[in-house]
Amino acid sequence: MLETTERGWQWVAWTWLKMAAFAGLGAAGTFFYARQIEPRWLDWHTQRLTLPSLPRAFNGYRLIQLSDLHLTAGKYPSRAQLRRIIQRVNQLHPAMVVITGDFVSDLDEAGQRSIAELAALKARDGVFGITGNHDYWSGVKGVTAAAESAGVRMLNNAHQVIRRGGESLAIIGVEDVWEGDPDLDKALRGIAPNTPVILLAHEPNFADVAAAYPQIMLQLSGHTHGGQIRFPFAGPLVLPDLSSRYPMGLYKVQKGSHTLMVYTNRGVGLAQVPLRFNCRPEITIFDLQSGQR
After folding, report:
1. First to last CA, the chain
2. Distance between CA atoms of residues 243 and 259, nearest Å
3. Smallest Cα–Cα separation from 188: which of 153, 155, 165?
């Protein structure tokens, strides 16, 4: 008959101790990854998108979307990191660059200097922007003035028509939905009824309003950061107001016979929580295709 000893219990205790140590190391490693690695691991995402009403003259039109830069002291991207981002954007030769809100978390000296770097962006048809809720909380007049000084045309309830030969495309923007006074009718005023429209709106849930306007074929938004922390099979830990319906990526919103395409960018910077997990920062490269023959 085998003699029992306490060594078996010692083995169990040692096994649990090792498992706890490995779990602690795993948690520490996950935190380090979410704090130091993923927030800087930019996803340069190419989105090829066919828009039925896009004029043939704009077939192959390249538009690059930046969003939620949160340019502030101590946050990614720093001024030097932003310069590298701008350099790569320029190497992609966009026809247009858009910035869909939240230029800053705080309009401090670092944020102002970083906004000034945006003057180096190069796009044939221009660089356009709108305000986000953090821009209002930081002083929207100051943010708007800094962006416009850097050559960013701010489309707060305004538009710009782009022409190729005898065909036209309009880019419009609305003020921040949360803190501003978004006015689509004002933004569209003066655009010919047959001109297709791309809308910049910081909060993606605004698509439920924009879908009632058949002229608008595409809405580009940000605001959500994708949630920043996303658990596999469970989705984002938390989302900000006015974003839950279209938290990240591409959606179709149907209103009668009209289909509005909506794209929510995960953003470049970080909001209050300085972590990203399973939700890399994003710059979106749209290669737009015409559905017209």
Report:
1. 88
2. 19
3. 155
Nearest to 168 by CA among 64, 261, 54, 286: 54
Mean local confidence (pLDDT), 189-198: 96
Average pLDDT over residues 181-204: 97
Residue 31 has pLDDT above 90, yes or no: no
pLDDT for 112 equals 96
The whole-angstrom separation of Cα 121 and Cα 77 is 16
Question: Amino acid identity of 154?
Answer: M
Residue recorded with tokens 């009668």: 256
How many Å apart are CA 40 and CA 34, to the nearest integer? 10
281: its two tokens: 């920062």
3-state secondary structure of 83: helix
What does the angle CA 198 – CA 200 – CA 206 come to, to the nearest 5 degrees? 105
- Give residue-wise pLDDT tens across range 55-78: 999 999 999 999 999 999 988 999
For residue 119, with 0-12 CB atoms within 10 Å meaning exposed, 13-18 middle and 19 or more buried, which class applies? Answer: middle
CA–CA dist 265, 278 (Å, integer) = 15
Give CA separation, 62 vs 87, 94, 163, in Å.
16, 5, 15
3-state DSSP assignment of residue 12: helix
Q: Report which of residues 180 and 273 the model is more confident about.
A: 180
What is the phi/psi pair of residue 147, to 5°?
Answer: -65, -45
pLDDT score, position 3: 46
Is the Cα dihedral 128, 137, 223, 283 positive or negative? positive
Please tell me the pTM assigned to this model: 0.90
Half-sphere exposure of 205 (CA within 13 A, CB side): 10
Cβ(279)–Cβ(226) below 8 Å: yes
19, amino acid identity: M
